[in-house]
Amino acid sequence: MLIKAFKEWSDQNEGQIEILAPTGKTTVMNRFKPGASKDKLKELYEYFSVALPPDYISFLQFCNGASLFENPEYGGESFLYSAQDVIHYNEASDNKIVVANILDDRILIDLESWSSGDEKYLLLCESLNPVDYASRFYSNFETWLDRFLISQGEKFWYWKTERSFEE
After folding, report:
1. Based on CB atoms within 10 Å of each CB, which residue in 48, 49, 69, 134 is the most buried?
2. Are 122 and 109 in contact (CB under 8 A)?
3. Whole-number mean pLDDT of the chain?
4. What was the pLDDT predicted at 128?
């Protein structure tokens, strides 16, 4: 998991790292909560009555939530939810559960897709749209998180490219 190396790098300077942002070099803060206990993970399983994807559970075992790429002065808006937050922000009957909030975009796990064997179960719900308007990420949690870290907290999912192939 890339998150482990990222946390080690952040921990070297009490959570502060320097990144290259569109405005130039900037310092950001990363805050990681300690890993979730077996009891917290059991509570999450019992709340939704379904096993969550193993890559997401591995994240919670490693760090039970995090705030990433915060401005040291003003704070941040990139939150990866703890097990407790996931229970707090979702109903037990929900098939699409919010697991992160990135600058008003919500990242969701589609429990129905996951339960049916789809390895690319992650969804994006933009801004204040209802969850019913969530779109597919074609990714799992670990891949999404790796890409988010590599893009240094940018919403890479809005980057557009056009490809043309010459024959």
Report:
1. 69
2. yes
3. 93
4. 82
Q: Nearest Cα to 25, choosing from 16, 33, 38, 14?
A: 16
C-alpha–C-alpha distance, residues 48 and 66, integer Å: 22
Rounded to whole angstroms, how far apart are CA atoms 138 and 127? 19
Neighbours of 74 (CB within 10 A): 7
Q: Could you tell me what percentage of the chain is helix, strand and coil, using 3-state DSSP and rounding each to the nearest 5?
A: 35, 25, 40
Domains of the chain from N-terminus onward? 2-152 (3.40.1580.10)
Q: Are 122 and 142 in contact (CB under 8 A)?
A: no
Give me the sign of the Cα torsion angle 96, 98, 103, 104. Answer: positive
Residue 20 DSSP label: E
DSSP secondary structure, 71-113, as one string? BTTTB--EEEPPHHHHHHHS-TT-SEEEEEEETTEEEEEEHHH
Question: Could you read off the pLDDT of 123-153 as tens digits, one per residue?
Answer: 999 988 888 899 998 999 999 999 999 999 9
- What pLDDT is attached to residue 159? 87
| Strand 122-125 relative to strand 135-136, pairing | antiparallel
CB-CB neighbours of 49 under 10 Å = 9
